[in-house]
Structure formats: structure tokens, C-alpha cells
Design goal:
CATH architecture: Orthogonal Bundle
Number of helices: 4
Distance between the termini: 57 Å
Structural class: mainly alpha
Shape: elongated
Helix content: 55-70%
CATH topology: Arc Repressor Mutant, subunit A
Radius of gyration: 15 Å
Order of helices and strands: HHHH
Strand content: under 5%
Length: 77
């Protein structure tokens, strides 16, 4: 009988990769999205889902645009 080793789920690997990239970009969501080859909107949706599920998401970097800071604070335009 062949045994299958189970590791982390694809969703967990994706989440860890996204959060690690965001940390490497000092919270710069625009840069992280570019390096991840996803739209900024897609990244924001993922981060919102993570935050809603109780996962700590880094704050936007200090140089973030006002719209990015509003988005993070929940004040959507």
C-alpha cells in the first residue's frame, strides 16, 4: 500500500506566500500586487478575506495612497 504525505493546503500556501510578499514589500500593496502578478483589486480582496477570518494582515506602508489607507480602514470610496 502506498502512503500519501499530506502537507499544507494550496490555500494555505497561497496565503503564506501573499503575506510574506507583502511583508517583504513593507506593506506596499501596489508593489506586492505587481510582484505577485495579480491586480491590486485581487490582492485587496484576498487581504480582506484573510482579515475577516482573523488572520493578521500588515498595515499599508507609510507612503500608501489615501485610497489604499481608506480601503484598509474599511472606508471604501
Amino acid at each position: 500500500m502506498k502512503y500519501i504525505r499530506f502537507g499544507p493546503t494550496l490555500a494555505t500556501v497561497e496565503r503564506d506566500y501573499i503575506l510574506d510578499m507583502l511583508a517583504q514589500c513593507d506593506g506596499n500593496r501596489t508593489l506586492a500586487a505587481k510582484l505577485l502578478s495579480v491586480s491590486l483589486r485581487c490582492l485587496r480582496i484576498k487581504l480582506h478575506e484573510y482579515a475577516e477570518s482573523g488572520i493578521e494582515v500588515p498595515l499599508p506602508h507609510k507612503g500608501a495612497s489615501r485610497s489604499e489607507q481608506r480601503h484598509h480602514s474599511g472606508l471604501h470610496p
